[in-house]
Amino acid sequence: MIFQLNFKSGKPVYLQVVDQVRAAAASGAIRPGEALPSIRPLAEELRVNRNTIAKAYSELENLGIVEAQPGRGCFLRENNGAVRKEVRRRLLIAEIDQTLVQAHHLQVSRKELLELIHERMAALEEKKRGHENEKEV
Amino acid sequence: MTDPAPAIQIENLSYAYGRAEAVHQLNLTVRPGRSYGLFGRNGAGKTTTMKCLLNLLRPKNGQVRVFGIDPAKNEVEVKKCLAYVPDQVAFYPWMTVRETLDYLASFRENWNRKIEHELLGRFRLDAAQRAANLSKGQRTQVALIAAVCPETDLLVLDEPTSGLDPIVRREFIETVIGAYQEGRPGQRTIFVSTHLISEFEGLIDEFTIMDAGRAVLTLQADEARERYRKIRARFASTPPTMKFDGALSIRTNGRDLEVVANGASSATEQRLRAENPEELSTESLSLEEIFVATLKS
Amino acid sequence: MTPRSIQLYKEVRQLLWPWSCLVLGGLLSFLHIPRDDYSWSPADLLNWILPFGCFVAIPLLAALPLGSEFQHRTIGLLLAQPVDRRELWLQKTMVTLAAVLPVAILYLFSFGRNQEFEMDFWMPAVWIVAATAGSVAGTLLAKSAVGGLALSSAFFGVLFVIWSKLAESQRHHGDISTAFLWVTGIVVVGCAVGIMWLGRRMFLRFQIAEGPQGEVGLATAARFIPRFAIDWLRCRPRGAILNLIRREVGLLRVLWLLSLLSFVTWGCLVVFHFVKPRDFPIESPPVALAIMLSLLIALLAGALSLGEEKTQGTHMWQLTLPVSSWTQWGVKLAVALCASLISAVGVPLIVLLVSGWLVGAPLSYLGNAPLLVFVLEAFVITSVAFWCSCIVKGTVRATLWCFPVLFALGLAGALGNWMSTAAINHTKFFADLLFAKIDPFRANRMVTSVLGLGGSHGSYLPLALAVIVGPLLAVGLLQSHRLFRGQLEDRKFHAIRSTFPPLMTLVLSFFVVTAVFLFAWRLRQEQVDIVREAHIAIEALEAGANGPIAPNVQQFTLDDLAKAGALSIQARHWLSNSTVVVRRETDARRPLSLLWPYEYAFLAPAAPGKNAVSYSATIRTPRGSECNLRFWASRSSQTGFLSQSCR
Lengths: 137, 297, 647
Fold this sequence. Notes:
The structure holds three protein chains of three kinds. Chain A has five helices and two strands, in the order αααββαα. In chain A, α2 packs across α3 (50-62). The relative contact order of chain A is 0.11. Chain A folds into two domains: 13-76, Orthogonal Bundle (Arc Repressor Mutant, subunit A); 85-136. Chain A has helices at residues 13-27, 39-46, 50-62, 85-105, 110-136; strands at 66-69, 73-76. A two-stranded antiparallel ribbon of chain A has the order 1-2. The longest helix of chain A is centred in the C-terminal third of the chain and has 27 residues, at 110-136. In chain B, α6 links the parallel β6 and β7. Chain B has helices at residues 46-53, 75-81, 97-105, 113-122, 136-148, 166-183, 221-227, 265-274, 287-296; strands at residues 8-17, 20-30, 35-40, 61-66, 82-85, 154-158, 189-194, 206-211, 214-220, 228-234, 247-253, 256-262, 279-284. Chain B is of the alpha/beta class. By secondary structure, chain C is an alpha+beta fold. Chain C is built from 22 helices and eight strands. Chain C has a six-stranded antiparallel β-sheet with strand order 3-4-6-7-8-5. In chain C, a hairpin with a 5-residue loop joins β6 and β7. In chain C, α12 packs across α16. Chain C is elongated. Classes of the chains: A mainly alpha, B alpha/beta, C alpha+beta.
């Protein structure tokens, strides 16, 4: 997968890497069991401190998204991860709360918000289907 | 767990060339495993600071410690722990690349031949070429190889990429990140002084901005990017004149207003939003922009 | 290879070329090239190897290990390595001593054997010891090898003069007391150790204080220059040529400092009575040292301006200015020569003149001094140094290159001489071929003018000088301008190859000059031989015809002469069909001047077994030459003086 870093986004670099991996996993750009790029080549390519990439990968491991196999690299976990369902729900609730606050500040009404959510979910499905199709071909 | 000894500890360092003060009461701490940037304009005192680390200059006041050792008293021990790439690389003109590397290896206890071979190939350097015939970029590459191969825990770089072409610059940084940091992950410390800040943006964890011999700002990179924000607003008519606390600069041009905020950016954003702008956007500052904004204010 | 051996190898490698050249020079100084008759031969340059080597080159060699670090700007690299500075100092000192010791022994040995320098060899020995010991300290202070040499010379020069004065005062019966020698030896060794320790301490505490554009270290002396001088030296926005001159004067900073030192040294010479009115002992050590110093100044005058520009890297940039390269080159050369004139020649001249004026007779000190030769040498050295600085990069290298180039010039001249001598005197075929064709009588005018005899006073000598100096100067100047303008070549042996054109020119010109001279000489000899034989024949005839009825004037032909005396083939050949008119002279008193109005005179015997008879004779050859002979017989003997002149 291709990473895109933006030093002007205000977000720490390692978090950007983490988020991009998560997005890729969600959209199907990486399949479960696929290997992520190794730390050193990725750091060299992005010209980012090696420790930052290492930190991102260890964060991903903590979140249960990837699994580090010594000597072989980091692999994307299966979707039924070791993290329990309640924990996953709790994490998602935190994210949803944040989004609601943001929507309030941006003066987006409830109806609009729900419409938007449906729109974005459909887009993600499209993307996933697209990825699956091209991988079959 | 106690804090490990800092890789570099500079306290109240002062140095003057004759009557011109180059460094004044500088305080700096570099923890091991970090990549530390020393930014400053030409003549800010960066090179002088680095020379004090190597006992090429003796401080008039204050103290310098490298891994807890004083360079003035125990310079050989200090130099064994670090490798240095100077800003003006000069080699003995009659020596070939091979001879130069062998000569520099003779001073070191470890010398990783594998890395040397790999880097020579990567940079496409001819080992039999005389040093007098190398271009500036090639000389810097040889100096970098000579700094990476001894596998020291501290790498001191003094304006390493000034005057080099973009490809050589990228390869330089890639080598520092790759070949150097890989050796002992998490333990290798990098201390780089430069004014080409955008290149080292990804590498730097922490930095100090120096101006006229004094430390003006010391911050972690992530913190800095979070704190410094540029807020742009476009209004329907002329923007209101407002004063903001902690704003480094305020610029207006026609109907546009731009505020560079140092901390308290959300408060600033809210105040601006209260004025009903047509458009409002926020973005973080890159390290180079932080540098310019800090020194120009 | 162990680490230390790698580092030592690097130190040694730096010194390799200069050391070999010095050794070569030392070996050459053992050679005694046979000198020909005329006054100055380029082989004379070889005689200067010894003093230059001992007083200048060996101290420069000692300053090289540390000085070349400054020259290559690798001093930062060296000091940033994890190695003890004491170890570094030890390595450099070891290499210095290992290099200087054999060369010093070689040169001192040659000194002792050479009778031209009546110096006792331990005087340069003391100088070498002192300068070597002070090399580290001097180089660190001046931050360059040449500067270190200058400072060492400064410090020790004055001491040396004072000490020589003491030595002179201790001289009994031409030999210096051994007690004095021992005391001096101990003091010198003690001082040497002290200065070396000082140098070591300076090195251990050395700080690299300047940035990449660091000054050569003597810029601090700018504080002592008076205000108006600094004002004049500041470049103005207008007046390009004047600015160029100002820049040159600035580049020659080191020179002005050295001139000051030279001034002091010459002053000491006068004060301590090493030079007295009408007495200029050129071989005594202090005077030789002062002369060396002035010649070193001349050398630096030529090498500094372009050498410093190339080292600082401003040379290429200067060439891009909208000033023609001829102008830039010309200004550099002119300022170098002027500076050399002022500093190397002018300073001693002024000192001597002033001291003479103080004594009351302004020119008294100059009486015996070889002034013209000195000016010439300064001129030559400055030109050669300038030429060398066009070829190689850097002041130190240019200075070092001067020595082999000067020696090579000397050898080239000697080679030219030898070649022509071999060709003319020893190649029978060539000689015979040539001399068979040329009438020695008709060629008389040319011969006399070449040999500088008779009325035409040495009109050949200026011509000879022009032939030697002219082409060499032209080739040298053209070459130096071409190299000045061009890129710095990095091909192997570029420097050596560049010396070929001037050397070839010099060989050729010397060949030509000597060949012409020898040719004329041979012709003259031939003519003299023929005349001598004719004279003997005439004498025989005259003596035979002695008698009361002998005619006063007689005319003979060649056959008569041939019957009377033995004539060689050449005589017969050249005198064939000539008429000889002989008049007996009774007045046998010799005039005061044998030569006027004749050209040539020599001692000639009478006919065998008979008394000498005076006569005057005229020989007319069919080719139109006319020879007048006049023989004065000495009373009651069988010899006399024969004068001749031919047209």
